[in-house]
Structure formats: C-alpha cells, structure tokens
Design goal:
It is a single chain. It is built from 5 helices and 17 strands. The protein is an alpha+beta fold. The chain has a 15-stranded antiparallel β-sheet that branches. Strands 15-16 form a two-stranded antiparallel sheet. The chain is globular. It starts with a helix and ends with a strand.
C-alpha cells in the first residue's frame, strides 16, 4: 500500500513539474522594445612566388582584400514584431603573372548588398504583415596579357526585389530564454543555491530578465558579460531567492547564460495567407578587345507566389518539442531570356526565349527535437511536397520527400560529437534560380559522423 502511494505521489510530482514546464514554455512572450546590433569584418592577404628558370624567372603575385558590414534590429511588443537586416560584402583581388615570354594581369571586384524588412501588426490574436527584400550581387574582372593585344572584360550582375504581404491568426514566440530560465532554475536547485523553488510567475520573470540581459547593447565585450551576469543575479537577489552566493552559484550562472547550446526554439500556432510578388534580373557582359567581340546575356524572372497554411510549434516539456505544419502554394514564374553577340559593333547573333512555369504544391512537415541537456540536441525532420506543374503547357506531377536526423553531442567544452543520417527521394522536380533547372530523379542516402575539437 505504502509503495503504491509513494509511486502515485512521485508520478503526480513529475506530472506537475512537466506540466509547469509545458505551460511556461507555451505561454512565454519574447518582448524587447528595440535591439540593434552592428558588425564589421575586414580582411587582407597577399602572396609572392618566384621560381628561377633557364631564361630568367617566373613570378606570381596576388593581393586580396575584403570588407563587410551588417546591421540587425528587432522590436517585439504585444502589437508589433519588426525585424530588419542589412548586409554589405565587398571583395577585391589583383593577380600578376610574369614569365620570360609573357606578362598577365587580372583584377576582380565584387559588391553584394542586401536589405530585408518585415513588420507584423497584431490585434486580438490576428495579424497583418508587410515587408520587402532587396538583393544585389555584382562582380567584374579585367584581364590583360602582353602577347595578346587588348583587354578582356567580364561583368556579371544579379538584382532581385520582392514584396511580402500577408494576413493571419496566431503568433510564434521565441522561447529560448524561457528554456534557459528553466535550466538555470534546475541547476541552482541541484546546487542548493535557492532558498525555495521558484513559482511559475518568478520563472517567467527570470526568463524575461534573461531576454533583457541578452538584448541590451553593450559595446565592450567584457562589460557586456558583466552586465548579463549582474542583470540576472540582481533579479534573483531582489526576490530573495538565493541563500548562498558561492563559486558554484556563479559558475552555474555563467554556464547557462554563456555556454548553453541553443538553436532558436519556438512556441505557438500561426495560420496565414501570404502573397509575394518579385522580380529577379540577371545579366552578363563579355568582351575581347583584340578581336572586337562582345556578348550580352539577359534574363528577367517575374514571379508571383500565393500561399496559405498552418504552422504549429509545441514544446511538450523542457526536453521534447514537436513541430508540424501544412501549406498550399500556387506559384507563377515567367523567364524572358535575350542573348546578343557583336563583332566590331555589328550584331552577329540575336536569340530570344520566353518560358512560363506554374506550380500547385502541397507541403507537409513534421519535426521532433530532443534537448537532453543544455549542450546536446537531437533532431528528426520529415519534409514532403508534391503537386502539379505546367511548363509551357507541358504538364506533369512532381514530388519529393526527405527524412533527416542530426545529433550534436557534448563531450567537453572543446569537443563535440556530430552526426547526421538522411534519405531523400525526388521525381520531376525543378529548381528556380538564374534558370529553370531540372533535377534528375534520384534516391539519396547520406550519413556522416565526426568529432569537432577546438584547441
């Protein structure tokens, strides 16, 4: 009888603990008034090689430089979710090759800016969204050779613009900070650092304090570390939740706040209808001065996408997560291609092509994620899509399915075991890029394993 009662009491406590985790994770709201981050990267390299030969020497030299910058901003309130990203990456390379019979020089320049903005307005669990994305990637090169008179030039440019509009119901919340609050509470309780177990309200406030700590911009990295630790510690101290501040208490704070291995974890349900028109322009210019030839290629891709669906992200508890969704997509792409060749300014070739690509697609996905501790993750993801397509009035059915399992296992702070196992099958599938490309029907099996060691 006593054993039965003990089992029932323990089961009730476990159920209550998991139910509290489930409820806190599901109800947590990621809120930050305005967070901004800026990053820059600069790189340079050069090399020189000299090899003596009978008639002199062969010399090969090159210089490389790159510069990049990025901007990220997020505002998450009860009424607005605004995210903005902007990037600029540039690169330059110069090469020179000398031998007794020839001198060859080449220069290369690449510029790639990108801007993306998306704003959602919420009212009574319904939302409207509006955004835009702009992308450009241009690169050019010049090449001269001493024994070939003239200059060879090459230019390639890609420009794309899309507008994102939509309406829907529900909201997906980022619950990673609440996940870490639960892990931190568990670690502190195991270390006997807490004066009493935290209530559901206090755990939610602890998650909010972690959000505040992580999303307050402090430029000095050392001061930012102190700010994050002090923000969370101040909350726990002010609530009178800590009975001792020994080294184990601070090591648990530092461990969870800075070394927890987390991918973004979501909670909530979202139903949506979205309409996305876009245009993609692609072109190349090639010229050879020594024979006065030029070639121009242009491709314009105008696209329309209408989609409706549902996504549901459900944290079962601190360790298990189930995500699934379904969507219906109707898409239209028009490809307009022009190729022209010139010799001494006179058109020698002029070809044009126009193609229309239409698809009606049903997409389904299911994902199960396991987080056994703060540094290990196991993920299983099933994706399927299928539908009907029309390519210049030639119709066919298409479909694909993939199953991927991944493991990232913590061995030590410097060592990780990683692995993946996947299988995929596709039939009559086309990919849309600079061109409409047919992907051969195939069955893929893939497995990998490795150990990452940081010295």
């Amino acid at each position: 009888m006593y054993k039965t009662l003990l089992i029932l009491v323990c089961s009730f406590c476990v159920i209550q603990a998991f139910s509290q985790q489930d409820s806190l994770l599901k109800k947590f709201k990621y809120r930050i008034n305005n967070y901004q981050a800026i990053n820059f990267n600069i790189g340079a390299a050069s090399q020189l090689n000299r090899l003596p030969v009978v008639a002199g020497a062969v010399t090969n030299s090159s210089s490389y430089g790159s510069f990049g910058g990025g901007y990220y901003s997020i505002k998450s309130t009860d009424r607005i979710l605004l995210t903005t990203t902007a990037y600029l990456n540039t690169a330059f390379q110069s090469d020179r090759y000398n031998n007794p019979n020839n001198v060859n020089k080449s220069n290369y320049l690449s510029v790639a800016p990108q801007v993306s903005i998306l704003n959602k307005w919420f009212s009574k669990n319904k939302f409207t969204e509006l955004g835009a994305s702009i992308f450009s990637n241009t690169n050019s090169s010049k090449n001269t050779a001493q024994n070939i008179p003239g200059l060879a030039k090459y230019y390639q440019g890609q420009y794309s613009f899309a507008i994102n509009t939509g309406i829907g119901k529900g909201r997906l919340e980022n619950i990673t900070d609440m996940q870490n609050a639960l892990w931190l509470s568990k670690a502190l309780q195991t270390a006997n650092s807490l004066s009493r177990p935290l209530t559901a309200t206090e755990l939610n406030e602890l998650g909010r304090s972690i959000t505040t700590a992580n999303n307050t911009r402090v430029l000095d990295a050392r001061k930012r570390t102190l700010f994050i630790l002090e923000t969370v510690d101040n909350y726990l101290q002010q609530k009178g939740l800590i009975n001792k501040t020994d080294i184990r208490y601070f090591s648990n704070l530092n461990d969870i706040l800075f070394f927890a291995f987390n991918s973004q974890r979501l909670s909530g349900t979202e139903k949506y209808i979205r309409f996305t028109p876009g245009i993609n322009l692609y072109g190349t210019n090639q010229s050879q001065n020594y024979d006065s030839t030029k070639f121009k290629h242009r491709l314009n891709n105008k696209s329309l996408l209408l989609s409706t669906g549902i996504n549901k992200y459900t944290p079962q508890n601190l360790i298990h997560q189930n995500n699934y969704g379904a969507s219906l997509k109707l898409s239209y792409n028009n490809f307009d291609i022009t190729d022209k060749g010139f010799t001494r300014g006179v058109i020698t070739t002029d070809t044009k092509a126009n193609s229309n690509f239409k698809q009606a697609t049903v997409n389904l996905f299911y994902e199960h994620a396991i987080y056994p501790n703060t540094r290990t993750s196991i993920n299983f993801n099933l994706q399927t899509q299928g539908g009907y397509q029309d390519i210049d009035k030639e119709t066919s059915f298409f479909g694909s399915v993939s199953l991927v399992g991944t493991l990232n296992y913590f061995i030590s702070y410097r060592t990780r075991l990683t692995g993946s196992l996947s299988t995929a099958y596709q039939k009559n599938v086309y990919s849309i890029g600079q061109y409409l490309n047919y992907l051969p029907d195939n069955l893929l099996l893939y497995a990998s394993a490795g150990v990452n060691i940081s010295l």
